[in-house]
Amino acid sequence: MTAVLAAAAFLLTAGCSSDEGAPPDRDGTASTAAAAPSSPAGKAEETPPAKGSVTVVRTVATGLGTPWGLAPLPDGDLLVSSRDDATITRVDGKTGRKTELGEVPGVSPEGEGGLLGIALSPEFASDHMIYAYFTSASDNRIVRMLYTERKPADEQLGAPDTVFRGIPKGFVHNGGRIAFGPDRMLYAGTGESGDTGLSQDKESLGGKILRMTPDGEPAPGNPFPGSPVYSYGHRNVQGLAWDPEQRLFASEFGQETWDELNAVAPGDNYGWPEAEGHSDEGGFHNPIAQWSTDEASPSGIAYAEGSVWMAGLGGDRLWRIPLKGTEASADPQAFLEDEYGRLRTVVAAGGDRLWLVTSNTDGRGDPKKDDDRILELRVR
Predict the structure, then answer these.
(1) Whole-prediction pTM value?
(2) What order do you get walking across the sheet with 248-252 strand by strand?
(3) Coil/strand/helix, residue 107
(4) What backbone torsions phi and psi does residue 124 show, to the nearest 5 degrees?
(5) CA gap 83, 295 in Å, rounded
(6) Which residue range is the domain that position 325 belongs to?
(7) Are the CB atoms for 155 and 141 separated by under 8 Å?
(8) Which of 377, 304, 341, 355 is nearest to 79 (CA)?
(9) Compositional bias of type Basic and acidic residues: which residue ranges (predicted)?
(10) Confidence class of residue 14 from pLDDT cuts 50, 70 and 90?
(11) Are strands 186-189 and 67-72 parallel, antiparallel or unpaired?
(12) CA–CA separation, 346 vs 310, rounded Å?
């Protein structure tokens, strides 16, 4: 059943700098920082090589408008959400042929808001449900829609059923990434909508990572009883991924100094707005790696071949962060710098393959011929 949660106060505009705009000049260096505890004692893990590689295997699809979320279907095709058009398009994984399934009702695109992350139900083989995170006229919310492939294309997408509402909205910092974890619970990265005070307020849904059941109820075992809040003190989370040991990682936009990759522990405080990047103050969970904001502005992340791969918007590059447990085992390494422009979403495609989605038609990029596109990568 629908879970209706009241939101804290929110702002439609924000005075702080945008996640994805041009930052002021600063020393641009990527660095590793103090990390969370590593894997359980006695658990041997293979350390990936310090230097990796990326090969662009092919361009899967072109001509996409403001693509944001991507969800691979069991047959190898891809579902892609358009932030500004509020549509979901099916892309043939072999030919790249695009079929628009329809517009999602209730979406109110503005600024960084619109139709954002999408995910398949963990029971998709039987329930055929697609989940979507979007900005409405009043809030950010999560809905699910029945997807019936046997019908004509424009009738395949069912009406949205709201499973969670009340996430603060703003012109900026709407979060938007959703993903089902290995525990089959639904996780959502939210932003503080430009109101920095929301991040430290555990009663607010803004500036958090949320964990809930597929029906939108607070998940069993959450750190704050009766609450969907899983971690707090975030500025704007747009990347979620798990490693094979079921450890959660999240990317986070900084304001003017440091973007972050975090190892997420339930109930922990990630510092915003008191801390941006590594902090020597007690009580904050420090990032495992951090970047100047002109080198990253990270959105989606994925785990493959022993590393987290992080798409950079302002940085126009793909970052590789090799891991051992929840620590970076070597310095982050950049790929595809300035080759494809802004990079929005990266999704594991199995083994050494990734799907990568560009974001040059979002109003902040410099679109080239055939933008935006989906690429297939081979990585190690």
Answers:
(1) 0.91
(2) 30-32, 289-292, 258-264, 248-252, 237-242
(3) coil
(4) -55, -35
(5) 23
(6) 47-268+286-379
(7) no
(8) 355
(9) 363-380
(10) very low
(11) unpaired
(12) 7
Give CA–CA dist 315/169, Å, rounded. Answer: 25
Q: Which two tokens stand for residue 232?
A: 């707090």
Q: What is the spatial distance between Cα 51 and Cα 285, in angstroms, rounded to a whole number?
A: 27
Q: What is the CATH number of the domain that holds 171?
A: 2.120.10.30
Q: Is residue 333 within 8 Å of residue 283, measured between CB atoms?
A: no
Report yes or no: 373 and 61 within 8 Å, Cβ to Cβ: yes
Say yes or no to pLDDT of 28 above 50: no
Domain count, the chain: 1
- Residue type, position 8, single letter: A
Q: Would residue 365 count as lying in a domain?
A: yes
Burial state string for 320-359 with b = 16 or more CB within 10 A and e = fewer than 16: bbbbbbbbbbbebbbbbeeebbbbbbbbbbeeeebbbbbb
What pLDDT sits at residue 159? 97
For residues 185 and 210, give the distance between their C-alpha atoms in angstroms, rounded to a whole number.
Answer: 10
Instruction: Give the per-residue pLDDT at 282.
Output: 87
Residue 98, burial from CB neighbour count under 10 angstroms (0-12, 13-18, 19+)? middle
Query: CB–CB of 222/228 below 8 Å?
Result: yes
Residue (of 296, 112, 266) closest to 190 by Cα position: 112
139 lies in a domain? yes
For residue 203, being part of any structural domain is answered with yes
Sign of CA pseudo-dihedral 263, 224, 121, 90: negative
The residue type of 167 is I
Identity of the amino acid at 151: K
| Phi, psi at 60, each rounded to 5° | -80, -45
8 Å CB contact between 215 and 163: yes
**Cis status of the peptide bond prior to 352, with omega within 30 of 0:** no
Structural tokens at position 316: 């126009």
Q: In angstroms, how far is the first alpha carbon of the chain from the final one?
A: 43
Instruction: Identify whether 222 is part of a domain.
Output: yes
